Amino acid sequence: MEICNATTEREAAFLSQDLFDKAMRGQWTEVVEIYKGHEKSRVAALTASRDTALHLAVSGGRAKEVEQMVGSLGEKVSEILRLKNDKGNTALHTAAELGDAYMCKRIASKVPDLITNCNEQNATPLFLAALFGHQEAFLCLHFLCEGNPLDAGSRKPNGDTFLHVALQGEFFGLAFQIVRIYPELAKDRNEDGFTPLHILATKPNAFKSSCRLGLFDRIIYWCITVKEVKEIKNDPEAYLKRFDGSKEPWYPENYGTCAHFFHMLFGVVFYGLPSLQNIRSTKVSGFQADEEKGRNNNHGFHRIKKIIIKKERHTVALQVMNELVKTASPYKFSERETTDIHFDPRITGEAQGVEAETDKKKGCSNKEGTVTVAPMESFLKEYRIIGSVDSKSSKYSVKMAFEKNVILKQKETETPFLIAAKMGITEMVESILDKFPVSIQDLDADGKNVLLLAVENRQTHTFQFLINRETPLHESIFRKWDHQGNNALHLAAKYGEYRPWLIPGSALQMQWELKWYKVVKRSISKHLPIHYKYNKKNQTPKQIFTETHKLLVKDGSAWLTKTSESCSLVAALIATVAFATSATIPGGVKETSGTPVLEDEPAFSVFCIASLIALCFSVTALVFFLAILTSRFEEKDFACKLPWRLIIGLTALFTSITAILVSFCAGHFFELKDRLKFAALPIYIVTCLPVSFFALAQLPLYFDLLRAIIKDIPQRSYKEFTQ
After folding, report:
1. DSSP track, 228-283
2. What sequence ranges are listed for the domain PGG (predicted)?
3. Which range of residues forms the domain containing residue 371?
């Protein structure tokens, strides 16, 4: 008997090794044959993580082989498909994690209750599809699910739901479908007290108000039209038919590289051709668009494509926001320490596995497939709940009272309205304020209202929206101060740890800080009485501004000094050359009259005028750069005086560089006009390239200066939210 058992074990080990080797070599035809012919091969663990052959086929994306393997299981299909690896994942978990809707349907249609089967992390395949942003897989599993998927494995340990994780991953297309399918999730909170609307309020780059585009990009943005995401109707049969056909390509496998190359090539040439848009869509710029395959592909020029993707992202995020605001009702309820909830015992971490069929369909099967109902004592202890159980149905009704620290955490949680104001999402601020006017009274843990948060975080668009609303804000909103006694002017004067403005250089940052302070002062000073001038530390806004901007003034002064020194050196060199040039007359003078020999030549007039312009403007540039170097670099100087001196100096410098080049070409033209004729112009262009590169390298600084001076209201930067 022992010899037979040893022989059987050796055969099983050999079979497992053979299966593993063939799978690693990609010999899937042989793997399928072995899988069909040997029952032991179906349950054999092939890897250190106890993955079966079916797990490996799914993780390798072998849809055709998976279909054949699942179809060969016969009566044991339920038993085999319930097999898990060391992470508690079934083959369906793996397919959902990869987002393969074809394989999800092949597996889930055989054993539908696998959709609510929990792994070691208490996550179902449906939850994994949402976590990784796979919209097609999520909807496929949703339509195949026979029970309520919210009963088991629908939350992370911290309480995040399908909708939370979809928004955290910025899968806005999927989030829109989820909120339409499960509107009740819009009100759910995690352990930190955050609803899905809280999560969305932390994504400023998903909205137009936080997007900074150049002039050309803005024109493209407003010219293109983007369709809104449509809700996928609750018609399981119609949707699931999309995954009835084969996923395999029509061409041989070894032709794949060639096919993808020509697809990419023709996709660029034939803009938007539907027949070429058959590549399965993936996560593009933070949201999923699986329902419209390839609509983000083949948009021709890369720059236009990026703007189209950006506008699609803004559109679908706005749709999700509207749904959440419409569904949410945070201002209809008063804070209570007790709440009635309903739950199914399957939502605890102990009840992992698959949902078993019972009279009332309660519980969740464990790894061996037996049914277990999580003890109420364990649930109450885990979630810090006290109360009693009244079991008259398949669910329990519990009175839960959170511990004091949990209650305090929920009370201190900022509302989505305040988070949106802090992040500069004007669309959300406007939408919430229109539906819930009482939200204007919201305060954060530091006692700051929406206006104070917008000012403190330099959210210029949100501030302007609040100031210029058709329905004016009440005086009390302007006169609000935080727990430290700071009003809006104090917060506008306070400089944070990072640079908030969309402008490079410490000097220009300082200029826009001064502009922002003046904008806030001009807007709200009439609403502030004189006794609001001091905070609890007896500081005025001016004192706070001086104290918090010392380092910025120092850095700005150093940058201006270094820039002026470099530019003044170039201006001095040009002035020297221009003076020598203007004193030299090409061709000499007539001995009889003393007039220039070439005075009747057009090039001579160009030479004289250009050399004079170069001399005058180089000296002008030198004077203004010296004025900067001798400046006292006070705070007020950064508002207007220093930027104007720098812009005038740079303008004069660029003009003198251009003039000296024209003067050189005009004077040298007399030497080459008879020998090279038409070839002289290209030679002059090449000769002037090195100097031209210097001027071009300084142009960005020049345009930044112009923008900083011209704009009355600074522009906020959102780079820190993209890192």
Report:
1. PPPP--S-HHHHHGGGSS--S-SS-GGGHHHHHHHHHHHHHHSTT-GGG--SPP--
2. 558-670
3. 338-401
